Amino acid sequence: MTGLQAEWDHMRGLTVDLLANCSPDDLQFSLHPQSGPLWKQFRHMGRVHAEYLAGLETGKMAFGTGAGRYTGGVTARELAGYLADLNAWHCRVMAQPDPPQLINWFGERVSRDLHMVRLIAHEALHHGQLMLFWRALGHSFPTSWESWGVA
Fold first, then answer.
1. Domain named DinB-like: which ranges (predicted)?
2. How many CB atoms lie within 10 A of CB 14?
3. DSSP per residue over 104-132, as a string?
4. Which of 5, 14, 74, 151 is the most core-located residue (most Cβ within 10 A)?
5. pLDDT of 72
6. Distance separating alpha carbons of residues 66 and 54, to the nearest angstrom
């Protein structure tokens, strides 16, 4: 799991780096009248992370459970705090003794490693969406985003 954990840390680090570069106006920006503002992307990424963590704890994956409910505001500081709290939970979950070895994914039983791969893939999906927002805003990417070839 060490390599997967390192990859997760890298992916979430990219998310946090981009968030740290967001102005209040950036966070309110929406690509389209029927899409939500940028800040909701970060909130959603946190909520999904929480659902994956709950799956690691319980051995059962579920979406829309309310795990990781966000009650903060729309500032970069508050969103970063939320992601930091989730990271602390993540560290506790990964350190738990005798965790479930298989996660029930809607009837499919997958290893903890595959569960983590799916979490990383979900974060990457949202990185693609964040790229669209960031390009539309006309900003340069943080240097950490060189790993995506966009910095």
1. 8-130
2. 20
3. EETTEEEEHHHHHHHHHHHHHHHHHHHHH
4. 14
5. 92
6. 10
